[in-house]
Design brief:
Strand content: 15-25%
Strand order of the largest sheet: 1-8-7-6-5-4
Number of strands: 16
Distance between the termini: 71 Å
CATH topology of the largest domain: Phosphatidylinositol Transfer Protein Sec14p
CATH architecture of the largest domain: 3-Layer(aba) Sandwich
Number of helices: 17
Radius of gyration: 40 Å
Helix content: 40-55%
Length: about 550
């Protein structure tokens, strides 16, 4: 299951990791593997990967070779739109050559009929009964043509023929010879008409052809019309990068994706109501420090048997899951900014905590199917894939298979064991935007703080007490919240007034903050009737350093006059 989980998660990186990163040719930066061992060189790799910068989507900033590839691809797309190649179904294309091939065959038959007719004329005495029959068939197929007028006298001439040596026959021969050359051109035209080879286009056909020439096909993908503006360049660059700037391969991929989207009817899928059961497993939450939307994938939620059975127990359920996954990805992509300087990729966070084991074949089947679809149809939608709560076995497995990945692919992978999950996420995502279950301060429900309230980080050394002082002006309510990353700390809070005549007030008694606590975020408030400060005390008695995140603000208290 380790390999499939890694590949599936990588695939979703396409946008949802669902899936896109898997193809080893769609990523960027030096590999970063975070192990649980403190002080190991792996920690430095995390810092290096944090400086990763995506490739530019501004056409003017591209290397010359990439500019040329983009121009060539745009030219191919322009010609395809002009010819309506994107709307031509494979079945229609396959039938067209067959129809063309039949036309010459029909034309060849026409001369054969004429030869037989001449032969019948020469053998008139021997096949007198058959000749009229053949002559009657000719008008039936060549109705209202000049050939009919020519053959009518021929029939009358044959009637009196009773003797091959009669003078009348000699006189008629020249007449027949004179008429044959005169009818050759008309008979040829008649044959072409009968064979359906009249090349003279009707006025209506000419108008349709001119309309097609002046009105190229309109094709959109992810809501962006092809060749419309600079956003189209961003879309085409995704296909070029997915195929290492091989123009023909990128164009083929683009055509296949457009065909698949029509077949899957993506536009209708966007409006379907497919339920909300999966939103605890895959969901968007906040952005990273570069503005990329962050997609979380918590496969451990499938330990819930009811949810698992609802999702994978039958073929229909697995189909619905796949449709929901594609719908979720499509909707997420539609929220991206495809302008050259905008954000058009997603950060994937894949949580291995309590993920199902290798015997969940239904899950493996569904995720592998999704993986293939994402790899083929959603190129270059992942900026970074961060695997968290990764067991040591999986880390070992990645090290084993990583030599088979390209450097560009490995650059998008970051791995963190359980003890390094929060610290690793903070490299890419601000703590106030990281969900509480991953060590951050973001949680559901009404809160005193918003994402605009900045967070301060402080390090607590091993076996030391650390204090944080927050100024508290008079006539206000001071509100704060803190989070100990790594747990196993003792926390307390008190108010210390400025006046020496006032007493210190204990706001919160000292208590131990353990990893298993139901409320990892420490919050509190104090109404200040006089100026002073609130002192937060953290006691770290472990042999490892800890990190504390905190933020605060004051709310003015209105005085009540009697």
């Amino acid at each position: 299951m380790a390999e499939e989980t890694l590949n599936t998660a990588a695939a979703e990186a396409a946008p949802a990791t669902a899936v896109e990163v898997a193809p080893a040719d769609k990523v960027e930066e030096a590999p970063a593997v975070v192990c649980e061992k403190d002080g190991s060189p792996e920690e430095e790799k995390v810092a290096e990967s944090a400086s990763f910068k995506e490739e530019s989507n501004v056409a003017g900033e591209l290397p010359e070779s990439q500019k040329k590839a983009l121009d060539e691809l745009k030219q191919l797309v322009h010609e395809a739109l002009k010819k309506h190649d994107f709307s031509a179904s494979p079945a229609t294309a396959a039938e067209t050559p067959a129809t063309t091939a039949e036309t010459p065959a029909t034309e060849e038959k026409a001369p054969a009929t004429e030869e037989k007719s001449l032969a019948n004329d020469e053998k008139a005495p021997a096949t007198e009964e058959n000749a009229p029959a053949n002559d009657e068939k000719a008008p039936a197929t060549e109705e209202n043509t000049p050939a009919n007028d020519v053959k009518s006298p021929a029939t009358e001439e044959k009637a009196p023929v009773t003797d091959e040596n009669s003078p009348a026959n000699e006189e008629e021969a020249p007449v027949t010879e004179e008429k044959d050359p005169a009818t050759v051109e008309e008979e040829s035209k008649t044959s072409d008409v009968a064979a359906g080879k009249d090349e003279t286009p009707a006025p209506e056909t000419e108008a349709v052809n001119k309309t097609e020439e002046t009105a190229p096909e309109e094709v959109s993908i992810w809501g962006i019309p092809l060749l419309a503006d600079e956003r189209s360049d961003v879309v085409l660059l995704k296909f070029l990068r997915a195929r290492d700037f091989k123009v023909k391969d990128a164009f083929t991929m683009l055509k296949n994706v457009v065909a698949w989207r029509k077949q899957f009817d993506i536009e209708s899928l966007l409006t379907e109501g497919l339920g909300t059961e999966q939103q605890t497993v895959v969901y968007m939450h906040g952005t990273d420090k570069e503005g990329h939307p962050v997609c979380y994938n918590a496969y451990g939620e499938y330990q819930n048997k009811q949810l698992y059975n609802q999702t994978f127990s039958t073929e229909q359920n697995r189909t619905n899951f796949l449709r929901w996954r594609i719908q979720f990805l499509e909707r997420s992509i539609r929220n991206l900014d495809f302008s050259p300087n905008g954000v058009s990729t997603i950060v994937q966070v894949i949580d291995f905590k309590n993920s199902p084991g290798p015997f969940k074949w239904e899950l493996r089947q569904a995720t592998n199917q999704a993986l293939r679809l994402f790899q083929d149809n959603y190129p270059e939608f992942v900026a970074k894939q961060v695997f968290v709560n990764v067991p040591f076995l999986y880390l070992s497995f990645y090290k084993l298979i990583s030599p088979f990945f390209t450097q560009r692919t490995k650059s998008k992978f970051v791995f963190a064991g359980p003890s390094k999950t929060a610290e690793t996420l903070f490299k890419y995502i601000a703590p106030e935007l990281v969900p509480v279950q991953y060590g951050g301060l973001s949680r559901e429900g009404e809160q005193e703080f918003t994402t605009s309230d900045s967070v301060t980080e402080e390090i607590i050394k091993p076996a030391t007490k650390h204090t944080i002082e927050i100024p508290a002006p008079e006539s206000c309510t001071l509100v704060w919240e803190a989070r100990a990353v790594g747990y196993e700390l003792t926390y307390g809070a008190e108010f210390v007034p400025e006046s020496a005549d006032s007493y210190t007030v204990i706001v919160q008694k000292s208590r131990k903050v353990a990893a298993a606590t139901d409320e990892p975020v420490i919050s509190g408030q104090f109404k200040c009737d006089e100026p002073g400060k609130v002192v937060l005390t953290f006691d770290n008695q472990t042999s490892k350093k800890k990190k504390v995140l905190y933020r605060s603000k004051t709310k003015v208290t209105e005085s009540i006059k009697c």
